[in-house]
Write a sequence for this structure.
């Protein structure tokens, strides 16, 4: 059924013959040599119709079998991968793959999202009454009709069902079976340094379109590795000063963070657990961790023994590259150095946007399912990975966000870095061209997005004006932020964000691609993101980016959870509504730093033709969010809040 126009297949187009397209995913009639013969509503969301052309009765009758065949299929497509991904070859049909099929249960998901909001809302009667795994499992019961249809579809193809958890069905099969099931072809793609197995389009039976929301791994591609280093900003700035002071240009050490953010609490062993979710190209060194702790937090020198590791990461590569190595070292050392002796876990599963050629399943979906269904879960998880929203399949992204709402309802705080090139991505043209490119998962309203600041002597936003040094400026240009195009602004943000949108947004921005003043605003909060000393291969190297501020905030929340546990109170869980309800003083408002327009350098592969940014102002702004933590004020707010609820 695939047609070819000018030598290229048109995705989302149904064909009456090899050169007669009927309807396109853009909802347009396409002409090529002949007129379309008939109008077909193959896609419920496509409003456009093709004009009928009068034909004889016999011709129309002869088309009935073709029409019935076309109507038996519906297309699920995504934007094409970025230009960095190239097809190498067809995937081996005999190799294994695990497909994860997400059920489309909008009513159940909407109910659970509202439950997550209720549990997180300080004025609600259910505030912080987190759900157990059993309670959430009961709430996640999918409609029997949807489950049976999907199970029947898969089983009829002779494929083994691996598991059913909540709204996700996992099925083990060969690539060949997956291709037959989805009427597609899988290919091996490369970004020049590693390979992934993907397809750019797939089909499911028409009768199942109302029951299936996504199938993965299929059309969502990882961030190309040369961009991964750009997003994570894991590049050293300069040699460590070694002065042991906490001024401008000094190392952002655990001691300085405690001093400046007024952290007056130390966790107790085995009372609270935090986690770091590794990027898809990760490595971890216990000896480097031990050396870091010995130098910067001597009392925690043996803490790495309590840092559990789950998974083996990217099994297709023996060497993760500098970005992947620095990234995991930065995340784990920052969080553990500050939160010790709380217990730490490193989830080295393959990243948010896997899978690699050697990991043919979606590790992030599996991880979220574990957090939803396991009895014991960490109270905080830090993520330093993201991707421009417009490179994500929207149904897949929304499904992930709904899962993250369920995780929040379990009492788990999810924190994501907001990015490090201001409000931009780095694709100047083609299908992903946009001036403003907000990053997902940071844009999901059920996670906490973390921006960056600079200068310990006088904290300012991390922007082109405040990040000093040529080497530093090449990879790290500005704290990421902006407004989502996938998720509308949640009500908990209205009071904080509306003044900025109405008073600070230039009128010209409304006509720029990717700008959406009604979208969910990011980031929510911020923290120091420059000059973090990280021990890598035995050497202390200063590193920066929101990949530093995010585990810093994860450590802050871990310590707050430990404080709450010491009072017999539950963990914070999904914290955004609480953060936006806090009065003056609980967070330090960052008001200086200028404009967060990103920049383009050949080193990062960025060739944007237009870079615009947002100004740092009093109150919430899309550079630093609500501001940085004042720990003693946050614990005071928790105590006052608990007293009011007695």
């Amino acid at each position: 059924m695939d047609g070819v126009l000018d030598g290229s297949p048109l995705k989302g187009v149904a064909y009456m013959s090899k050169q007669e397209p009927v309807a396109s995913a853009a909802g347009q009639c396409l002409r090529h040599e002949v007129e379309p013969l008939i109008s077909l509503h193959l896609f419920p969301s496509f409003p456009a119709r093709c004009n009928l052309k009068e034909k004889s009765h016999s011709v129309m009758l002869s088309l009935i079998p073709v029409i019935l065949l076309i109507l038996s299929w519906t297309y699920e497509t995504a934007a094409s991968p970025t230009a960095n991904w190239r097809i190498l070859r067809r995937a081996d049909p005999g190799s294994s793959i695990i497909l994860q099929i997400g059920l489309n249960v909008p009513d159940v998901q909407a109910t659970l999202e509202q439950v997550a909001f209720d549990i997180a809302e300080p004025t609600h009667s259910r505030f912080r009454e987190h759900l157990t795994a059993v309670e959430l499992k009961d709430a996640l019961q999918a409609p029997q009709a949807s489950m049976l249809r999907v199970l029947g579809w898969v089983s009829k193809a002779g494929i083994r069902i691996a598991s059913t958890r909540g709204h996700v069905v996992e099925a083990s099969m060969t690539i060949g079976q997956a291709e037959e099931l989805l009427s597609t072809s899988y290919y091996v793609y490369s970004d020049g340094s590693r390979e992934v197995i993907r397809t750019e389009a797939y089909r499911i039976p028409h009768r199942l379109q109302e029951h299936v929301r996504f199938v993965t791994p299929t059309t969502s591609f990882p961030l190309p590795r040369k961009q991964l280093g750009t997003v994570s900003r894991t590049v050293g700035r300069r040699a460590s000063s070694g002065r042991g002071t906490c001024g401008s240009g000094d190392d952002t050490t655990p001691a300085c963070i405690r001093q400046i953010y007024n952290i007056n609490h130390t966790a107790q062993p085995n009372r609270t657990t935090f986690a770091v979710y590794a990027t898809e190209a990760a490595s971890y060194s216990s000896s480097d961790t031990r050396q870091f702790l010995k130098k910067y937090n001597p009392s925690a020198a043996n803490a790495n023994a309590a840092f559990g590791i789950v998974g083996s990461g990217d099994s297709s590569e023996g060497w993760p590259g500098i970005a992947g190595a620095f990234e995991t070292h930065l995340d784990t050392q920052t969080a553990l150095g500050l939160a010790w002796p709380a217990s730490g876990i490193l989830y080295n599963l393959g990243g948010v946007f896997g899978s690699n050629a050697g990991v043919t399943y979606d590790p992030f979906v599996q991880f979220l399912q574990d957090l939803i269904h396991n009895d014991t879960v960490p109270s905080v998880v830090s993520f330093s990975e993201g991707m421009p929203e417009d490179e994500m399949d929207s149904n897949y992204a929304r499904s992930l966000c709904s899962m993250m709402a369920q995780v929040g309802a379990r009492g788990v705080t999810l924190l994501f870095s907001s990015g490090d090139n201001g409000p931009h991505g780095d694709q100047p043209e083609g299908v992903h061209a946009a001036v403003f490119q907000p990053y997902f998962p940071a844009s999901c309203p059920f996670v906490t997005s973390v921006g960056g600041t600079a200068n310990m002597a006088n904290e300012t936003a991390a922007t082109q004006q405040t990040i000093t040094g040529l080497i530093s400026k090449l990879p790290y240009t500005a704290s990421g932020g902006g407004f989502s195009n996938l998720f509308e602004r949640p009500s908990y943000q209205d009071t904080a964000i509306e003044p900025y949108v109405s008073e600070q947004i230039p009128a010209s921005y409304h006509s720029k691609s990717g700008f959406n003043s009604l979208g969910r605003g990011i980031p929510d909060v911020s923290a120091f993101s420059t000059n973090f000393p990280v021990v890598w291969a035995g050497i202390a190297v200063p590193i920066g980016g929101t990949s530093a501020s995010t585990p810093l905030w994860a450590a802050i929340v871990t310590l707050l959870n430990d404080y709450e546990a010491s009072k017999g109170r539950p963990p914070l869980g999904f914290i955004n509504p609480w953060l936006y309800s806090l009065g003056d003083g609980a967070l330090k408002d960052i008001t200086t730093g200028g404009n967060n327009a990103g920049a383009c350098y050949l080193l990062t592969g960025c060739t944007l033709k237009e870079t615009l940014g947002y100004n740092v102002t009093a109150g919430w702004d899309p550079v630093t969010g609500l501001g940085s933590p004042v720990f003693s004020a946050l614990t005071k707010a928790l105590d006052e809040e608990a007293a009011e609820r007695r």
Summary: The longest strand covers residues 96-103.
